[in-house]
Design a protein that fits this description.
By secondary structure, the chain is mainly alpha-helical. It has one domain. It has four helices and no strands. Helix 1 packs parallel to helix 3, helix 2 packs across helix 3 and helix 3 runs antiparallel to helix 4. Bound molecules: zinc ion. The site of zinc ion has 6 residues, from helix 1 and helix 3.
Length: about 80
């Protein structure tokens, strides 16, 4: 059984991860993905920085669609690299 996270899933659960709201097995999968995916690793770092600056976890659904698309496009670039 191979249930690796996909990058799209990562974006969807990242706020839960940062709030430590993921079940332990999900968190383990998340961190495993981070260990080999530079794109998501960078994304999580950026989210952490945003939290440091604003003091709160940015809600994924509150992201402007343009920004969200930009992030997804960035993922594609990272994948290609
Ligand atoms: Zn990824």
């Amino acid at each position: 059984m191979n249930e690796e996270f996909k990058c799209q899933e990562m974006i969807e659960v990242v706020t839960n991860y940062l709030e430590s709201a993921l079940p332990p097995n999900e968190q383990e999968r998340f961190e495993r993905h981070l260990s080999y995916c530079a794109g998501c690793s960078t994304y999580v770092d950026q989210m952490r920085e945003t939290i440091t600056q604003t003091g709160k976890v940015p809600r994924e659904e509150s992201l402007p669609p343009a920004l969200r698309e930009q992030i997804v496009a960035q993922f594609r670039t990272w994948k290609r690299g």
